[in-house]
Design goal:
The complex is a heterodimer of chains A (about 300) and B (about 300). Chain A has helices spanning about 45-50, 70-80, 95-105, 110-120, 140-150, 170-185, 195-200, 220-225, 240-245, 260-270, 285-295, and strands at about 5-15, 15-30, 30-35, 60-65, 65, 80, 155-160, 190, 205-210, 210-215, 230-235, 250, 255-260, 280. By secondary structure, chain A is α/β, with parallel strands linked by helices. Chain B has one domain. Classes of the chains: A alpha/beta (about 300), B mainly alpha (about 300).
């Protein structure tokens, strides 16, 4: 798969504040790429530079084979962006919003009607077309935000915390639509999110802190490297738990042990097979990865 | 062109569907109309009567009402064309606040297309409101004393059109630098309260001190007020001349009329030189072109936010 986004040695400062420092990463075509960081880590700055809304200080940004310094219009056509805060015109109807957005890309007449039909079917918002955006529910608005971003058939969909504030059902619907798009249209998805379970489903994850990359890899690689496993053993007493010689916490009807990795878990199971009768080994979570590499908890999601 | 038209339609719809913006725009002409009709008209009337009494002449009641009404009419429209345009042009600032502008420019939309769509939409919305105000003024004049010729009616329409274009261009350049709701309120308040004074609508420039009058003569809006005043009052002065020359010596009547024209800015003097009406049109037209050019250039040259 070719690299659809290539960012190399990107720098951006606001006065003395270094928002992005020597940022380099690649995103492969069709990939779900998660870009994580606390507020102020440099995520939005990077996205704004990618979308030609902000001037970089130095570095190279190549998107869909186009250099942002020379072919920003081509890049604009390749990107669709869903912002954290909706930019729909609340006093206009859904149709009017999509009509003006399509016009930005020079999509008019039958081309617009055809695309509108495709999207309204895909995202199931046909009954909403004549309704005023301000009167839609949060989930309905989000659907229209996505439709707005997809109106020009972009190759890359940038989702800036798209599911923040949505109810679980709407989040699931949105993700099912995005998954469908990735499969059917080979669309690359560039995601920033506060929901770690969404990042856990990504093909590749980059975590930034203070404008620098602090960890990158697949979710599995990151979990293996930065988050320990946990073993939960059911039906043993404290004396048996103590005999394993590692720290644990007591939970209802069981004891939970923290181990460095799966290898250590395997070693314990092999060494004490009589203790491991009823047990489960669980890999570390992305929250733990994030906490380990940044020393910060990613606020938001359900905690927000 | 299609993109421009769609953006234009979007901007016009946004203005008329935003009740806050729409009613704020309407409120300036409405307050002025009520103020003039209930209070200021009597003040002006007494003032004119005083001048005429000084010359020892009397005119018909309806002619006096036509004179006062014409002045009120011209003042109201001169102020409204500009203040309303500042309200209707707030959409471009609101789009910055909501992120809509940034969003549009993330697509391959030309900055000049977006800028002109804001300008044209604002001019259109302002024109609608000012034409309604103009019709209300015509009705008012029709009731109190109509002396406006057909030619002057068309010239008033042209004046309103030009002043709307001027007000929209001026507000476009000023609003270009605004980026928050606070800025919108501050500029709206300043323009609403000050513009009427500096364009000679609330008080004739003739009543200003020399230095202040000379300064405001550099402002194109002043000429717009005078253009409107000439066209709303030409008929009144012609009728007054015709009536008074029957009973008074012509040189005295001419002096009286010229004195009145000077006192309410129908005659404008750039330092000591009288500015002809054709020159006023030229100044206002060139100002519109210059301001629109500055506005488009500002938009095109605007760098991506650092």
């Amino acid at each position: 798969m070719k690299d659809v986004i290539q960012i190399k040695n990107l720098y951006k400062s606001y006065g003395d504040v270094k928002a992005v420092q020597d940022l380099s990463f690649k995103v492969k075509e069709g990939e779900l790429f998660a870009f994580l960081g606390v507020n102020g880590a440099g995520k939005s700055t990077t996205i704004s530079i990618m979308c030609s809304a902000l001037q970089k200080d130095s570095g190279t940004v190549i998107i869909n084979g186009n250099d942002i310094d020379k072919e920003s219009d081509d890049i604009k056509r390749a990107l669709g962006v869903v912002f954290q805060n909706s930019v729909l015109d609340k006093s206009l109807t859904v149709y009017d919003n999509l009509r003006s957005r399509a016009a930005v890309y020079g999509i008019h007449g039958n081309d617009f009607k055809t695309r509108l039909d495709e999207l309204s079917e895909l995202l199931d918002f046909k009954p909403l077309l004549k309704r005023t955006v301000g009167k839609l529910s949060g989930g309905q608005k989000r659907k229209i935000d996505v439709a707005r971003a997809l109106i020009h058939k972009p190759r890359i969909l940038v989702l800036d915390e798209p599911t923040t504030g949505l109810d679980p059902q709407t989040r699931l619907t949105l993700w099912s639509v995005i998954e469908n798009l990735r499969k059917t249209e080979k669309m690359t998805v560039f995601l920033t999110t506060h929901y770690m379970e969404e990042a856990a489903d990504a093909d590749f994850v980059v975590i930034i802190d203070s404008g620098k990359i602090v960890a990158e890899g697949t979710p599995l690689q990151l979990k293996n490297e930065y988050a320990g496993d946990s073993i939960t053993i059911y039906g043993i007493d404290d004396a048996t738990a103590n005999s394993l010689g590692i720290s644990y916490e007591k939970i209802s009807g069981a004891h939970r042990f923290s181990v460095k990795n799966t290898a250590q878990a395997t070693e314990l199971i092999t060494k004490y097979p009589h203790i491991f009768v009823d047990y489960e080994v669980v890999k570390g979570k992305m929250d733990s990865v994030f906490l380990t590499v940044t020393g910060k908890k990613l606020e938001g999601g359900d905690n927000k | 062109m299609k993109t421009f038209l769609v953006m234009l339609k979007r901007n016009i719809k946004m203005f008329f569907k935003d009740k806050g913006l729409f009613f704020t725009s309407m409120i300036t002409p409405l307050i002025l109309l009520v103020l003039y009709a209930t209070f200021l008209s009597n003040v002006y009337k007494d003032s004119f009567m005083g001048v005429l009494d000084g010359f020892g002449v009397k005119v018909e009641e309806s002619l006096m009402n036509g004179l006062v009404g014409g002045q009120l009419f011209s003042s109201l429209l001169a102020v409204s064309c500009v203040t309303v345009s500042f309200c209707s042009n707030m959409l471009m600032v609101q789009d910055k606040v909501t992120g809509a502008r940034k969003d549009f420019l993330m697509g391959p939309l030309k900055k000049s297309t977006l800028a002109l769509s804001y300008y044209t939409a604002s001019a259109f919305s302002t024109l609608i409101i000012c034409v309604l105000a103009m019709i209300a003024c015509f009705v008012y004049i029709g009731i109190v004393g109509w002396y406006i010729t057909v030619a002057d009616v068309f010239l008033i329409m042209l004046d309103v059109f030009l002043l709307v274009m001027f007000g929209t261009a001026l507000s476009s350049v000023i609003n270009f630098f605004l980026s928050s709701q606070g800025h919108i309120s501050a500029v709206g308040s300043i323009v609403s309260s000050c513009y009427g004074f500096i364009c000679g609508a609330y008080m004739p420039l003739a009543s200003f001190g020399d230095w202040l009058r000379n300064i405001v003569m550099f402002l194109p809006g002043t000429y717009g007020t005078s253009m409107l005043r000439n066209h709303t009052l030409n008929g009144v002065f012609e009728e007054m001349t015709s009536q008074l020359t029957k009973t008074h010596p012509e040189p005295m009547v001419d002096a009286l009329i010229e004195g009145l024209r000077d006192s309410i800015d129908c005659n404008l003097y750039f330092f000591d030189t009288q500015v002809e009406i054709g020159t006023m049109y030229l100044i206002v037209s060139l100002s519109i072109l210059a301001l629109v050019a500055i506005y488009v250039i500002l938009n095109v040259l605007r760098k991506k936010k650092d």
